[in-house]
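User: Continuing from earlier, I have the next pair ready.

Assistant: Great, send them over.

User: Here they are, in order.

Assistant: Folding the first of the pair now:
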Amino acid sequence: MAGFSRKSQMAFSTVKLDGISVVRAVAGAAILTACAAVHWQPLLAVFVAVALFVGTFALFHSRATQKGFLFVLGVLLAGYAFLGKGLAYLPAPPIFVGEVALGLGLLVLVAGGRPGPALRLPLSWLLVAFAFLGVIRTVPYLDEYGVLALRDAVIWGYAAFAVIVAQLLLEVGWLPRVPRIYGRCVPWFLAWVPIAFLIQLLARDLLPVLSAGSQRVTLPDLKAGDISVHLAGVGAYLLLDLHKISSRGRNVGMVIMQWTCWIGWLVGGFMIAAWNRGGLLAMIAGFVVVLALRPSRGLARVAFLAVVLATASFVFNLEIDVGYSRKFSAEQVAANLKSVVGGSEDSQLEGTRQWRLQWWREIIQYTVFGEHFWLGKGFGINLAYDDRKQATPDAPLRSPHNGHLTVLARMGVPGFALWVLLQGAFAFALLRAHFLARRARQEWWARVNLWILAYWTAFMVNGMFDVFLEGPQGGIWFWSLFGFGIAALGMQKRDRKSWGVAQASPTRT
C-alpha cells in the first residue's frame, strides 16, 4: 500500500471493516431466516429480512437511520396513546409491533459502534443493573415457561427503550423538538378521547377484533387508566405553558386553542374520573407536582371551567348511563374519591379495593417476611394462579394490579430495592435539574424537567392500580419517557457551564 496516500489508506481500512460487518450481518440474518423457515413462521422471516436491511443500512448511514427510528418510535407512541392495547396486537402473533420496534432500535443502537453519552450517566448504570437482575430472574424459567417468561419480563425488558431513546436523542440532537411535536398532537388527542371512549362503551361489537379467546381486543382498545396518564401529561404541558414557549409568538388563535384544549381536557378527565379510581389519582398526582413546584396562572382558567362543569352536573343532575355499573356523573366521581381511602357505600368499589389490598398484603408477606425474600418467584409463573386469585393458570390475569408489587413478587426485595432506587434517583435528578435551571434562568429547561417529572408521577401512580407497566402501551411509553428524561439530564449537564452567559432555550433543530 506504499502507493496510496494516508487518506486513501484510511478509507480502504474503513471499507474493509464495513465489509466484514456486512458479512457478519448477512450471516447472522441468514441463520435466523433459516430458523424461521424451519419453524414455518413466514412473518418472522419477513421481520428478519427487514432487520437485515435496516442493519446493513445503519452500518453505512447511521445518522439517517437514527433519525428514521426516532420518527418511527414517535409514530408508535402516538399510536399507543390513540389506539391503546389494540395496537399492541398488530401485526399478528408471534410478531408484535412493540417487539419489532425494540429489535430495530437495538440494531440501530449497535450500529453506532461505540458507547454514547447516555451510557456514561450514573442513572443509566442503575438502569442497566436493574435490567441485569431481571435477566437473572428470567433465564432460569425459559425452559419451563418459554414465551410466557419473556412476556412477564417486559417490565424490565422494555427498559432497553430508555437507553435507545436517550442515546439517539443525544446523538441526533432532536430533544428540543419533542415538546413542540407533542404540543401539535395535544388538540387531536383531546378531541379523540371522549369519542373513542364512548365508541368502546356503546358500539364495541362493531369494532374490528384483533384477538379472540379469553381476551377480546379491539381497535381501538383504550383503558381508562392509560388515558388518564396521558391526560396528566397533557395537563402538565398546558399548565406549564410549554405550548407557548415552544412556539413562535402569541396570538388570538393560540388563546382560543388553549381554552378549547382545557375544555376538551375537562370533558375527558371527567369521564375518566367517573370510570377509574387509579386514573383519577394519576391525574391529580400530575397536577399536584406542577402546582407544588410551579404555581401557574393557568390554574385559574382550569378552576373556573371545572367549577362550571361541576356546578352544572349537580344542579341539572347530569348523568350518562352507558349500560354499565358505573355512570358518568358527579356522584360517581365523588364515590371513586371516597373509595380510595375506604368507607365507600358502593359495594362493588369497596369489594375490588379489599380484593387488591388482600393480594398485596400476601405478596409482602411471602417476600419481605417470607421465603421469597431474596429472589422472588421469578418471571414466567402466573402470580394470580400461584397466589390463588384465579382458578386456572391460563386465565389472562397474570400479575397483581400494581406494577411495583409485581417487581417485588418476581424479583424479591433486592430487585424491589433497586427499582425504588432507580425511580427515586430519576425523580431526584429531575428535581435538582429543575431548580438549577430556574436559578440560571433557563426557563425552557425548568419547565421541561417539571413536565417530565409530572408525567413520570402519573405513570407511577397509575401503575399502583393497574397492570400497566407490564404491557406495551404502558411499558414502552414509560421507558421512552424515562429515556427522554435521561437525555434531558445529559444535555443539561453538558451545557450547564454556558448557562451563565446564554439564557435562551436550546437551539431549535
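And the other member of the pair:
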Amino acid sequence: MPPSLRGLLGLALFVFAAAPAGAQASPYLPLDDPRLPLLEHLIARGDVEDPSPMIRPFRVADAERVLAAADTGAEGPERELIRTLRAGFAEDTARARWEAGLRLGGTAYTQKRRDLLHLGGAGDWNWYLDFALRGVFGPIAAATRPAVEPRLIGDPDWPNTTQENVTGRLIEGYISGQIKFGSLTYGQLERNWGPVGYPGIPLSDYGYQRQGLAITLGAGPVRLDALASDLRSEFDSTGQRVNRYLFVHRLEGRFSRRLRVAVWEASILQGVGRTLETPFANPLSLSVLANTFGINEEGNNVMIGADVHWRVARRLTGQAQLAIDDFQFNQRNLTPDRWAAAVALFGALGSRLAWRLFYTQVSSLALRTSNPFENFTDAGVGTGRNFSDMDLIRVSLSVPVAGSFVLTPELAMQRQGEGRINDPFPARNAQGVLDVPGIFIGTVEHTYRVAVGIAGARGPLELSANAGFHHVTNDQNRPGVTANRVVARIQATLAWRRHGVLH
C-alpha cells in the first residue's frame, strides 16, 4: 500500500478511536499569522509560557491556553497586550464550526528569495491573494489555504521553473485528528524545529510544499514528534527514477519546569523503486544504531541531533541545537565531521521590550554526501537549512507599537564560504582523505547587516515588512569585490473573515 494511503487509513483509525473520548480539536496557528509576532514577543520576554519550545506551529487552542494562564498574574503594559491577543485567539466552543478568510494585497521586494541574507532573483512587485477555509468537527480539524503568488516566479527556491505569468501554492492543507494526549495530521503545513526566527536544522519551512504524515504524542514530561514525507523523485545517470523520502522524529523529556532536553534524527532514504520501509520510519527506533549499524541498508543518510531549552530565570531563556550529519565511527581520519549548531538567548528588557541573541554555524560539508540523492534537499532546496559552509550572529530587539504591531531592529553579521548544499562532494586526495577545511572553503563572503522590521495587524490591514542595509565584502565569494545594497521586502494585505457554527 502506498505511504499516502497508509497515512489516510491510519488517520481514519485514529479519529475513529478518538471520537468516543469527546476530544475537541483546534486548527494550527500558521507561521505567517499576523498575530504571531506579538505572541512570540511576549514568549521571549517570559510573560507568556511557550506552548511547545523549539517546535512550531502550535494550535490556536494552545495559544489561548497559555495566554489565559498569563492573564491571571499579568501586570503593567503586558497585561493589555495579553488581553488583546486573547480576544483574537478566543475560539468558538461549538463542536462543529467553520471559518473562512480572504486576503488580497501586494508584495514588493528587492529580491525574490525570502532569505534576505542570500541573493536570489530580481526585485519587483506583485499582487497577492489567498483564501483560507478551516473547520472543526469534534476531534477533527481541517484546513486549506491556496494562494496566488506571482512573486514565486524567479525565486531560486521555488521548484516550478515553467510558469511565466501567474503561479500559486498551497500554504496549508491538512486534516488532523486530535485527542488529549496527541494528534495525527495528514497533509501540509509549514513547520520549523529549532529556535524561533531562523530555519531549524532537522526540519524547517524554508522550502515550499512540504507534505507528510505527522504524529505527536505527549503526556506529562514526555513528548514524541515524527514526520514522514515523500520528496520529489530524481533521475540517475541511466535515466531510472530515484525515489526519495524524509523521515524526522524527536523525543523530548521535560526534567523540570525550566529544563527540556530532546534527541532527534533526520533521515534521507533513496533508491530506485524504493518505498518508505517500516524499519526506517519507526518513530521509536534509533536509526543510526538499529539501521545504519544494524541492517546497514544502502541508500540512507542519517543526521542525529539534540535540543536543549533552559529557562535560566523568569526573564532569561537559552536554547541550543546541535546536529552531526552522518557521524563516522570508523576511519575518522579519512572524512571530516559534518556538523551544524545553533544557540539562542532571549529575555525581557525593561517593561516593554524583548531582546534576542542568535548564533548558528554549519560546516563546509554538512547536509550533503558523496551521493547527491542523499543530500538533505528536496528539488535542490534544503529540508531544514538551505546553506552549508556558513555562520551567522544576530542581535535584535522587539518593541510593541500601535497596540498590535511589533517593531524589530537588528544587527547581523554572516560569513559564507564557497561550499554549497548542492555542490558535488570534493574529490579525495591520493591518500583517500577529504582534505577540506571543516568550515569556510575558499573565499569567504562577509555580510554586515543593519535592518528594521515590522509585523502585525490592525482591523483588516495586515503588514509584514523588513528593510536593511548590507555592506558585503568578497561579494558572492569574489575576492576583493565590495558591495553596498539595500535589501527590503514588504507585504500588505486586507483581510476579510467570517465564521459560524455547523448544525
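Worth noting for the second one:
Residues 152 and 196 are 24 Å apart (CA to CA). The mean pLDDT is 90.
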